[in-house]
Design goal:
With 761 residues, the protein is an alpha/beta fold. It folds into five domains: 87 residues, Alpha-Beta Plaits (2-Layer Sandwich), CATH 3.30.70; 84 residues, DHBP synthase; 184 residues, Alpha-Beta Complex (DHBP synthase); 130 residues, Nucleotidyltransferase, domain 5; 195 residues, ATPase, nucleotide binding domain (Nucleotidyltransferase, domain 5), CATH 3.30.420. It has 23 helices and 32 strands. The strands form five sheets. Strands 6, 7, 8, 9, 10, 11, 12, 13, 14, 15, 16 and 17 form a twelve-stranded mixed beta sheet that branches. A seven-stranded mixed beta sheet has the order 29-30-26-25-24-31-32, sandwiched between helices. A hairpin with a 2-residue loop joins strand 2 and strand 3. Helix 15 packs across helix 17 and helix 15 packs across helix 18. The structure holds zinc ion (ZN) (2 copies). One zinc ion binds next to helix 4.
């Protein structure tokens, strides 16, 4: 048969995932000659062989690609010239235009087997990896993805590692972070003061310290964790005190799947997610009684758990035989994650008893991702390790856009042609440390993607740091600045993710965002067009006394709802409901309400949850954002009885769901039902009420395409109920690739800007 040549261009996630050795092995299998190399746009293959072999090769390329690879396009063109005598793997060619940056990947089974094999040269080596696993995004300094452009460049390969690296038959062929005890990074220990400890086996020492109830600062893949024995009540208590984190749940890392099953109710899909190469923290229902310390998640019936994802984690948990370790972000409450050794030794001083450090530098800090099953599918609560920097689609290729994101749970979005790169979770843009982190991560994204923005986008709120940054930059550079209402950005994010085009209806249930009318929104129903929207409906507006203070102190919202219902008589009921310690404060807040001073109107659903949590005595003051609604949901989950109240809908200028009435009904039934039943009743009634609101808007507009999002949809009971109800009749979109919370806002801002820019033409 005649020999033909074929040039094959493959795009997608094809670098850093073992794609070239895979191509090499296939070429050998089908007796082809030629070459394969990485380019700035993906992988380029030149293959020579007979027609049949080439076809079989193409088929196998698509069907047998390595587990971490994702082929997005595969284009072939005929190739003239003489066939070479062998098949070669060539060095990378420059250019970085379309290359995907792979996310970090959990240790694979083959590497694990070697890690615990006493005869293997990498026995107990904490940095073992191969082309199927290991660090990627967290070590990449530039593209194309080659060792010389990662933080591994300072470790020249030893002869043994080099021969693996160069051998296309080897599992470690071009595994860029390849390393071994002879040539690679190392771990060592420091004491609480930061002085290095001269111990023979730092790992064994760290395990012993954890067993004794000590707190270990552990340098991991994307930054530091603070770890302690999750079954040790005293250790967890000390960690909470030192970290200044009184009640916010701690994530735990369990030894293996069996340990996970011992601690949480897990379905098949949940187990699969826990074991996936992305290894997120999964929020699952805790089993009771539990061997874990009560301090892990006080008052909650959900547990955030993950499986080990680096060799060091596996070693710690297996050799220490710990059921579970607390693995909470290595930071002081509210600050960004510690990444560098020196930084951790300073900032975590006074928290950690020991520091387990290493010298594989982290290019950019990245937290663990958090997921929860809501309405039958895994949803992101925090998008970071394992997901970033996988892009989402972007419908506007003409201009490169930078969206600054929201105030809390900030991420930014940078677009490049038809892709939008959403940063990892960056934290609340409230302090200088987080702003510095924001700027650093942004510079990193712009560098590795080789992109500078041409349009800027930010929130409407003039007081946000993100808005300030955007305005400063627009002034300095002269770039156009687009402003987007917070909840409209939420809606646009969902549309962008699913590629749906306006018009559609969007119900956004959220904490807070500034509305067009200068009141605080957060329970809104919109009619969204491309670049324009109408506010069709919302929940009943009440006052939010003290502004932000009311978001931290649910008792204020309780009083606000009482005031909306009973006016001057509100204080009397307030005194009946709350302990005496709140009475004096109540009087001051009452005056704010009565005079309308520092008490803006709000339609925030988050604040409604807060008020209900206070009404049922679940939470008067929050120690972290979202505590009251989480406790309320936990209480509802324990209910034995179902109770649903009808919430009336009034139709005037807007559709208004009279949630004030729901509040009154709960109040009137306080004596008749237990708290759990009322808590569940609150959720179910709200879900039904919102369904009614949507049905009414569908009737008004004729639109049956519904988008749901906003932070309140992290609440499983509300989301499950409402989706079930709406899916019967409508086309419903609910976020999958981004969180329903503010983590999605920057992407939504970018999507909104694309619609606006297209309108302008
Ligand atoms: Zn591996
Ligand atoms: Zn080596």
């Amino acid at each position: 048969m005649k020999t033909r040549g074929l040039r094959i261009r493959v795009q997608g996630v094809v670098q850093g995932v073992g794609f070239r050795p895979f191509v090499y092995r296939l070429a050998k299998r089908f007796g082809l000659t030629g070459s394969v190399r990485n380019t700035g746009e993906g992988v380029l293959i030149e293959a020579f062989g007979d027609e049949k072999a080439l076809l079989a090769f193409l088929k196998a390329l698509k069907e047998e690609a390595p587990p971490l690879a994702r082929i997005e396009s595969l284009k072939t063109t005929p190739l003239e010239g003489k066939a070479p005598s062998e098949f070669l793997v060539l060095e990378s060619q420059g250019g970085t235009k379309k290359t995907k940056i792979p996310p970090d990947v959990a240790t694979c089974e083959a590497c694990l087997a070697e890690l615990f094999d006493a005869g293997d040269r990498r026995f107990r080596y904490p940095f073992i990896n191969c082309t199927d696993c290991g660090p990627r995004f967290s070590v990449i300094l530039d593209l194309p993805y080659d060792r010389g452009k990662t933080t591994m460049k300072v470790f020249p390969l030893c002869p043994a590692c080099l021969s693996e690296y160069q051998n296309p038959e080897d599992r470690r062929f071009h595994a860029e972070p390849n390393a071994c005890p002879v040539c690679g990074p190392k771990i060592w220990l420091c004491d609480a003061k930061g002085d290095p400890l001269d111990v023979k086996d730092p790992l064994a020492f760290a395990i012993e310290a954890l067993r004794e109830g000590k707190i270990l600062a552990l340098r991991g893949l994307g930054g530091f964790h603070l770890a302690c024995d999750a079954t040790n009540q005293e250790a967890c208590h000390i960690l909470r005190k030192r970290k200044k984190r009184p009640r916010k749940p701690f994530a735990i890392m369990v030894k293996d799947l069996a340990a996970a099953e011992l601690l949480a109710e897990l379905g098949l899909e949940e187990k699969r997610l826990l074991c996936s190469p992305k290894r997120p923290i999964l929020l699952a229902r805790a089993k009771s009684p539990s061997p874990l310390a009560a301090e892990i998640a006080p008052g909650l019936d959900i547990l955030g758990l993950m499986l080990p994802y680096t060799p060091l984690h596996h070693l710690l948990l297996r050799e220490g035989d710990f059921l579970a370790l607390v693995m909470t972000s290595g930071n002081l409450s509210g600050e960004p994650l510690c990444v560098a050794n020196e930084e951790a030794l300073t900032r975590l001083k006074g928290i950690a008893d020991f520091f387990l450090l290493h010298n594989r530098e982290i290019a950019i800090g990245i937290d663990d991702s958090v997921m929860r099953f809501i309405a039958g599918k895994p949803r992101l609560i925090r998008r970071a390790r394992g997901f970033v920097p996988e892009p989402l689609p972007y419908p506007f290729t003409e201009k490169r856009v930078f969206a600054f994101g929201p105030h809390l749970k900030n991420t930014f979005t940078l677009t490049r042609e038809d892709e939008a790169f959403i940063s990892q979770h960056l934290g609340d843009l409230e302090d200088l440390e987080t702003v510095r982190f924001f700027k650093k991560v942004r510079a990193h994204f712009e560098n590795i993607l080789h992109v500078r923005p041409q349009v800027l986008v930010c929130d409407l709120h003039p007081g946000y740091l993100s808005t300030e940054l955007a305005e400063e930059e627009a002034k300095k550079t002269g770039l156009p600045l687009v402003k987007v209402q917070h909840h409209v950005a939420h809606a646009a994010a969902v549309a962008g993710e699913f590629g749906i085009r306006p018009p559609f209806l969007a119900l956004i249930l959220d904490g807070v965002g500034l509305g067009d009318d200068h009141t605080l929104w957060g329970g809104e129903l919109f009619y969204v067009e491309a670049g324009a929207y109408q506010r069709l409906g919302h929940i009943f507006p009440v006052r939010q006394p003290g502004g932000d203070a009311a978001a931290r102190e649910p008792w204020r919202m309780l009083l606000a709802y009482l005031y909306a219902l009973y006016g001057d008589k509100a204080l009397k009921t307030f005194r009946k409901l709350l302990p005496e310690t709140f009475w004096a404060k109540g009087e001051i807040v009452f005056k704010m309400l009565a005079r309308g001073i520092n008490a803006p109107l709000t339609t925030s659903t988050g604040r409604l949850f807060d008020a209900c949590a206070a009404l049922l005595g679940v939470c008067y003051e929050q120690s972290f954002e979202g505590e009251a609604p989480m406790l309320l949901e936990a209480m509802a989950a324990r209910a034995q009885e179902k109770l649903i109240f009808e919430i009336p809908l009034t139709v005037k200028e807007h559709l208004v769901l009279d949630t004030r009435r729901l509040f009154r009904l709960l109040l009137e039934h306080l004596e008749k039902y237990d708290q759990e039943t009322l808590a569940l009743g609150f959720h179910l009634s709200l879900a039904r009420g919102f369904a009614l609101l949507i049905r009414s808007a569908v009737q008004q507009t004729g639109l049956k395409r519904i988008v749901l999002s906003g932070g309140c949809f992290q609440n499983k009971i509300l989301a499950d109920e409402l989706l079930r109800e709406l899916l019967k009749d409508y086309e419903v979109y609910f976020p999958e690739k981004l969180p329903p919370n503010d983590g999605a806002v920057s992407y939504g801002q970018a999507i909104w800007a694309s619609w606006k820019l297209k309108l302008k033409g």
